[in-house]
Amino acid sequence: MLLDKLVASGQFDDDGVSRLIKACEPGHTEIVKTLFKREKYYELYRRRTRKSRIKTQKLDKVGREAIMLACKHGHKEIVKILLDRGKDCYKCDSSAKSPVMMIACEHGHTEIVKLLLKRGADYKNCDMNGHSSVSKACQNGHTEIVKMLLNREAVYTFGLSPVMQAFEHGHTEIVKVLLEKVDDFSTCYEVGHPTLMYACEHGHTDIVKILLDKGADCNKFDEGDKSPLNAACKNFHTEIVKMLLVRGADYNICGQRSCSPTISAFEHDHTEIIKMFLDGRTFDLPPVIQAFKHGHIEIVKILLEGVEDFSTCCEVCHLTLMYACEHGHTEIVNMLLVRGANWNKCDKRGYSPISTACEHGHIEIVKMLTDRGADLNTCDKRGHSPLIMACKHGRTEIVKRLLDGGADINRYDNDGQLPIIKACKKGNKEIVEMLLDRGADFNKYDEYGQLPLIKACKYGHTEIVKMLLDRLKDYTFGMSLVKQACKDGHTEIVNMLLDRGVECNECDENGRSSLMEACEHGHKEIVKMLLDKGADFNRSDRRGQSSLMEACEHGYEEIVKMLLDKGADFNKSDRRGMSLIMKAFEHGHTEIIELLLDKGAVNEIYVD
């Protein structure tokens, strides 16, 4: 009775899903039959909806959704009932994307597909995304359905999707079925090559063999500039690599935007694949370099098998040794040295193996090279010796090793910079102390007029400054030190220099004093320190710029107050005739203008 009432009422749920749909989804065949036996109620409902186009559309929607649900869930009997009642097997679902045939193919319901084909369902067209019934079957591995559709000449090349789906997902049986349609892949790049790439990339060995037997080109690059062998190497598909090599795949060929298969194998440490490549074959140099660069010990051992004397193999020997030294591969360096690699040979930049090891901080390699008598004073094209490289990068242990080995402590580079200048810039106290104890010349200027002490002041290395000051007999160049420390705001260093009696009123060639530098850069504590030491606050440089002008121009209000309180001249102008108020006004420093006016500065801007 309840069922009769539901059918008679013709009611729908709020979401538009009818009792019919609810019966179709779980496969309640008897309920569906009962619903359709109540023909008078069904017709009654149709008559009720004639006045309403919306309700009629809702009824059509019910029919479409019912048959689609039945196809999706494999309820053949319900599909047959619905088809007998006139439900259209050509219709699409509410998204206009999936005809009933496509739904049945996607879910692998072979008997329903047969039924739909008998009733004339469309199996050739594609949906809005380019998917066809055969592509759905290929994607999900439903071999019998694919055969059925292909026997009816279903379209399988639209967008190459069916073919690609089968290859990508490794459905070997379907691939065989599809390939029966292609006699020679060597003339079919569009189908043959991408499918081979997919199979190589995803490791589908059987499919690769089928394609190669069909004539697919194993050396053809895809749009991403990769070859099939490259794809197989990258993903470590050993059997496929072996198969491709037998078919003549080129393991040294590179694309415009991609590396060769050998480089890929070396980079990813695929030892087994590299062994295959090595079997009676020769490499281009770059892949060999990769093994030494990345420290692949086992691969290097394979490469070095049979090589007893590297002294006759200059280019390979030197490059591999340089890469091993750069990246810290101690065991590989030892292998190369045992085979006679030249540890004093330099590259095009003038870098030697020991210089490279010093730069990158590989102490064990440095020890190994020094024990073999590596030249500790050879320089690159910039004049950098191993000791300079070690000092520049703060390699304390290496510096000690080089000094113990007799490295020239006062050898300078092309810029006239000694190892101690590099160490002072880096700020490594231990290295500086070590160099000083070994007699490093700390009074020598470089090409830019810089001393080690000036470098230490510039970069704020207080302890090194103190260490160097303790060794100085006079401070005739003290102005440079104070000015540099003031400019960079190193308060502690300025205080140390002033306490040692360094003159604070000396100026450089442009008339710039230490106080001017501190005012320009806003270092308030240093300004106070200099003023307390009697710095001349009214002195001007060659442009007529005073310390107060610097503070006004850059907007340092507290420094302006400090200078005004000391009695700085607030009506002074520079060589262009710009007064303090004009400079403050030009840069929008209103508070400073008020300060100057309160002190009685001439108002050149505002008119009452």
From TrEMBL:
Family matches, as InterPro entries: Ankyrin_rpt, Ankyrin_rpt-contain_sf, Multifunctional_ANK_Repeat
The protein's name in its UniProt record: Uncharacterized protein
Keywords of the record: ANK repeat, Repeat
PANTHER family given in the database record: ANKYRIN REPEAT-CONTAINING, PROTEIN HOS4
ANK repeats, residue ranges: 62-94, 101-128, 191-223, 224-256, 321-348, 349-381, 382-414, 415-447, 477-509, 510-542, 543-575, 576-601
Signal peptide segment: none
PROSITE patterns, per the entry: ANK_REP_REGION, ANK_REPEAT
One Pfam family per UniProt: Ank_2
Domain of life: Eukaryota
Organism phylogeny: Eukaryota, Metazoa, Spiralia, Lophotrochozoa, Mollusca
